[in-house]
Amino acid sequence: MIFYKKLITWYLQNKRSLPWRKTKDPYKIWLSEIILQQTRVAQGLPYYNAFVAAYPTVYDLAAAKEEEVLKLWQGLGYYSRARNLHATANYVTKELKGQFPKDYKGLLTLKGVGDYTASAIASICYDEATPVVDGNVYRVLSRFYGVHTPINSTKGVKEFKKLATEVMDPKQPAIYNQAIMEFGAVQCKPKSPDCPNCPLHTACVGYKNADVDVLPVKEKKIKVKKRFFHYIVYRFEEQTILKKRTNKGIWFNLYEFPLLECDKILSVKELKKRLANKDMITDSLDLVPFNQEPVVHKLSHQHLYTKFYIVEVNKNRKTILNNQQWISIRDIEDYPVPVLIGNFMERFF
To answer: What is the C-alpha to C-alpha distance for residues 284 and 44, in angstroms, rounded to an integer?
Structure first.
């Protein structure tokens, strides 16, 4: 069995019809690859269509405000991808005269573009024989060849890149790379793959050794950090307060309600005392919990335990919150916010 021939044959018969497969425009391939990082196709497709409609060329994306890009990205998570997307569009238009680098090494110089994305663009747009290695590829290769080296180890990254290079079709890199990615997404799925009906199963080491469910191997995950958020939602005559997150970390440059982060979820009495010490509330104002149990919002290495509190502000707002910028609730949807905040807004406003 010739591995790449089987994959390509399967792909030509089973590939999904996706818009980025109908072009070799490096801008659109780059856009699709950035959107699909750590994102399923079903979730990413509407975002891709929205971005192409709003910014049909790299010049249009560069001309947009970062806040507009973040708003359109809202809900995809990993917002550094959106910031890098905008920064790279600016770099390509201003420094490269609108032309993307035309090889793997050149593409690696772009912000937010790593080995996988550079390989995908170089192979699909320029037919450079550079193999892609993403989660789907790790899964297919580890199962078919029976490789137990952890994919998130330094040794594993090098070993799988070498293997991917050796088994690819150097004469058809574009179609091969798309074939192995599609095969991992559709046929060689993470859970309950249909191995008996797989065109590779007769030569698959993982299937032969009943190792499909344990491959690929990953080293022990990083310990998840717990954080405890208390959001204070002020209301005054159909106005509220939103603040931009300026600290590097999660949700940089997105908006949220005034926040108090503590080492645990506080009682209303404890919370009101701490807020009073920060001049965020007075005895004349009530602090009303919106949700009795914390909302648990899970990020890759963080779990956020979150409660929202409503403060209906009277005329005293000028004395206790005079340094805050109030916005109309009618305009609240114009601001890019994390999913956690967006979900609350849909329920409350």
So the answer is: 47
Question: 27 lies in which domain range?
Answer: 3-214
Closest CA to 327 of 54, 319, 343, 337: 337
Q: What's the CA gap between 281 and 320, in Å, rounded?
A: 7
The answer to whether 254 and 244 have CB atoms below 8 angstroms apart is yes
Q: What is the mean pLDDT of each run of 10 residues along the chain (349 residues)?
A: 93 96 96 93 96 97 96 92 96 96 97 96 96 96 97 95 95 96 95 94 95 93 90 92 90 94 94 89 87 93 95 69 81 94 93
- Label residues 17-46 b or e (16+ Cβ within 10 Å = b): eeebbeeebbbbbbbbbbbbeebebeebbe
The structure's pTM equals 0.84
Instruction: List the catalytic residue out of 33, 128, 182, 256.
Output: 33
Q: 């790279």: which residue's tokens?
A: 88
**pLDDT (0 to 100) of residue 300:** 83
Beta bridge partners of 244: 255
| Coil/strand/helix, residue 97 | coil
Query: What is the residue type of 342?
Result: G
CATH of the domain at 278: 3.90.79.10
The verdict on whether omega for the bond into residue 216 sits within 30 degrees of 0, i.e. cis, is yes
17 with 11: CB under 8 angstroms? Answer: no
33 catalytic? Reply is: yes
User: 279 and 245 in one domain?
Assistant: yes
